[in-house]
Fold this protein.
Amino acid sequence: MGKKHKSISYAKWGYIFIIPFFVVYAVCTLVPLFSTFLYSFFDYYTTMDFRTIGPNFVGLQNYIDMFTPDRTGAIDLLNYTGNTLLMWVMGAVPQVLFALVLALIFTGIRLRIKGQGFFKTVIYMPNLIMASAFSMLFFTLFSPVGPVNQVLTQITGGDPFLFFSDIWATRSIIAFINFLMWFGNTTILLMAGIMGIDQSLFEASSIDGATSKQTFFKITLPLLIPIIVYVLVTALIGGLQMYDVPQIMTNGKGGVDMTAQTLVMQLNRMIGGVTKNYGKAGALSAYIFIVTGLLSILVFKVTGNSSGKKKAKKGGK
Amino acid sequence: MAKLKNLDAPAKVKNYSDFQNEKGATSLLIARIASYVFLVFVTVMCLFSFYLLIINSTRSNAELQSGFSLLPREHFFENFGNAMKKTTFFLPQGLLNSLIIAAATSILTVYFSAMTAYGIFVYDFRGRKLADKFILLVMMIPTQVSAVGFVQLINQFKLVNTYWPLIIPAIAAPATYFYMKQYIEGALPLEVVEAARVDGSNEFRTFNTICLPMLKPALAVQMIFAFVGSWNNFFTPALVISKAELMTVPIMISIINSDLHSQAGDLGKLYMYIFISIVPVVIVYMFLSKFIIKGVTLGSVKG
């Protein structure tokens, strides 16, 4: 009783402590977010001679335009969504796998790896390099006169391979850079997750004669699911924001037939240049918002179910 | 293929206790060797880019244009001189600008995230659960989605070409809050707060002088994430800054890079810019990395 009374008298401090966050969030993110959505219902843009047209209410026209097929019958927006997700998956799968293996190596007590501090320090380092610097570096590495082609032409004796004229080569290089930049970050998170698991569970399983494989699939992995969900969701949000790497890599042109154009590159094209189209950019933003939300829910549903099952099992025991 | 083998091996043999019998000895040895091979492979992969960036900063534009080499050349100081020359913009100015923004951003982010997490963890007030849920929910919103409205807002308040739009939003960082909250739950016993009250400390002082120091590892981890994020950020500064004397390093680099496509650029100078821009973050990282390695795990161990 006494404790409760005490905490009530301090309640106002709770508000004082959280107010700065909420005020700033409302002003800097919520207000812009709503005005962005609002603009999506207006014809509102600037022209080359710095005149501003609108805002004139047009209803859902911007959304209709966004989903209208072009002359060839393709819907650009869906292609860009596909590109973004594809390049994200190509980078995220090795990212999580590498991170998982590294986290297991670092937390494996019996392995007794020496120089752990060094390795842990190094794996995060690629994240220190600007995405644009990475992109330039890989652009020169894979250019027709670059070292990769120098080796390649010596082996095949033929002409240099034009990596950036090849759809899948371009996408793979972009995905690889994203993987390289982020797997260290993921490793740190997974490591924290594994070390959070109750050590007595491992001891118990060992006494019961569980093989290492069983220990991993029956104990480590299921208990790691919440952290993996967090990793996947944050990676997904990051992936949908993919911008710097493909932008620099393709010099803002989106690669062959726009097959490396991402959603945010498209957004930047609408508001980053001399002419700005707030209406159309607003509609695209709303679309990205909805896609992010749906995919996050999907990740939670898929992974949430499996962890729910595990919890039920544990409870039954 | 070799890579795949390495991927499997450590997972198979990994075990957490020493209760195993001798038949595990050989497989443990194999696992250990495989782990080292994998670690060395990963290390080379990570450091190779740094090596190339450094090598490239020692080569002249002509050398860089004509081809590639893994050996350093002698043009380091020449490139350095070129990079330090004042053109439309001035690299030392850019470094200073980036430093001001990154330092302010990272301090605000960790301080106010810790403060918010502390407020929600320590105090019992109406809407506490809701506030927590709300922040978790908005963590899912990509930053760029509100960019259109953000640009408009900056225009309205005449904040174009100022640093306010880059610094102030750092106060509300949902992902950092989430991490701080997790950490505080594990690392901060409520008894500490109550003991401080008994001693007559006011709530702000308790937070600033007693609780904040207890969160040092988490603050350091998030500080470096925020610093690097801000230092390397291109998207938002490019929307806000157009004046040469206010430009950050990533904007300068993108300008030099676009010069290259018009054949007017100097690759040697570009790589020197990149090299110089990496030095500060590497220094900050080296100072704080021990917290990253220890700190990130500490919270969850206790939790």
